[in-house]
Amino acid sequence: MTNTQDGALLQVKGLKKYFPITQGIIIQRKVADVKAVDGLSFEIKRGETLGLVGESGCGKSTTGRTILQLYRPTAGEVYFKGQDLTKMQGEELRRMRRHMQMIFQDPYASLNPRMTVGDIIGEPLEVHNIAKGQEKKERVQELLQIVGLNPYFINRYPHEFSGGQRQRIGVARSLAVQPDFIVCDEPISALDVSIQAQIINLLEELQEKFHLTYLFIAHDLSVVRHISDRVAVMYLGKIVELTDRNSLYKSPLHPYTKALLSAVPIPDPVVEEKRERIILVGDVPSPVNPPSGCHFHTRCPLVMDICKREDPEWRDVGGEHWVACHAV
After folding, report:
1. 125: nearest Cα among 110, 111, 140, 141
2. Is 197 exposed, middle or buried (0-12, 13-18, 19+ CB in 10 A)?
3. What HEC string does 227-286 produce?
4. How far apart are CA 45 and CA 230, in angstroms?
5. Distance CA 259, CA 209 (A)
6. C-alpha span between 314 and 302 (Å, rounded)
7. Vertex 51, ends 45 and 55: CA angle to 5°?
8. How far is CA 210 from CA 146, 197, 215, 236, 302, in A?
9. pLDDT score for 2
């Protein structure tokens, strides 16, 4: 883990989130845990975008929600502006929530169909006592304009909008309380490709305008490369590699990162033909019973004996390039 730098807005240390599995109808007893997030340590600098990538089910969304304390962590610390969120409760945490927001993955499920757009975007303003009445209405109209929607749509309902427009409403809602940090949980995966680019450009414009810091969760590496300053690669509850985007794409060190990058299509047919595809064997193991040692050893082409026994150390191999691999 890097030392606290002046520029670090968020620091995560040894973060774990386990979901218990219980058996029995009347007397329930815990029989196992789903180890969704299993000991993450990283930091996000003020004003940057950290991309978090990995296969479906590796714990990316759980990481985002646990950082914001929507799920309370099983272990570990989350420092936001130097304060440990995991120690906060009730009113203290609620006040802190003003500074951290989330854009959800599914714009169809994350907006209440019984509320108008004005109520959806205005709700956080009332919850945090920022604006009421006419002032709230004006602020909502201003937010709609900022995200590229007609301010007179204020009395319409979510079903009257397309997917891309709904996601813009979600973005407007997250901006309402003027946060410093936003978790973008796969905000474009449910949208058409043509709309995806618009939402990405919108997020970049807003970041510049309001000096926002993003944790951008996605499984599309080409999108992450476009928007992120640094990229963290996640596999089965653990981060296996973390570095700036250029280093990651030019010289990936972890075998899992190499396999992920080999699956990203290159629009140049000459380069595409020459390049080597790395096909991983087997399926992702269950987070209920992850493999011993390095979690990736069951699918790794470079597996050694030590990988099966010992968890690799999370270390900086130079130039802020962090990796957890015995073979590096």
Report:
1. 140
2. middle
3. HCCEEEEEECCEEEEEEEHHHHHHCCCCHHHHHHHHCCCCCCHHHHHHCCCCCCCCCCCC
4. 10
5. 36
6. 18
7. 145
8. 11, 20, 15, 34, 45
9. 38
The β-bridge relationship of strands 181-185 and 213-218 is parallel
Tokens in use for 121? 């975007």
H helix or E strand, kind and range, residue 205:
helix 193-210
Output the CA torsion sign for 53, 56, 59, 65: positive
Contact 299, 280 (CB under 8 A): yes
133-146 and 163-175 helices, crossing angle to 10°: 130
Residues contacting 266, CB < 8 A, separation 6+: 272, 275
pTM over 0.70: yes
Q: Which residue has the tokens 């979901």?
A: 19
* Cβ–Cβ < 8 Å for 67, 79: no
- Which residues, other chains included, contact 251 with Cβ-Cβ below 8 Å and sequence gap of 6+? none
pLDDT at 4: 44
Pair 290, 35: CB distance under 8 Å: yes
Q: Could you give the CA distance from residue 233 to residue 172 in angstroms, rounded to a whole number?
A: 29
**Single-letter amino acid, residue 120:** I
pLDDT tens, N- to C-terminus, the chain (328 residues):
334 445 789 999 999 999 999 988 888 898 889 999 999 999 999 999 999 998 888 899 999 999 999 999 999 999 999 999 999 988 899 889 899 999 998 888 889 999 999 999 999 998 888 888 899 999 999 999 999 999 999 999 999 999 899 999 999 999 999 999 999 999 888 888 888 889 999 999 999 999 999 999 998 888 898 899 999 999 999 999 999 999 998 999 999 999 988 887 777 787 777 777 888 887 888 889 889 899 999 999 888 999 999 999 999 998 899 999 998 8
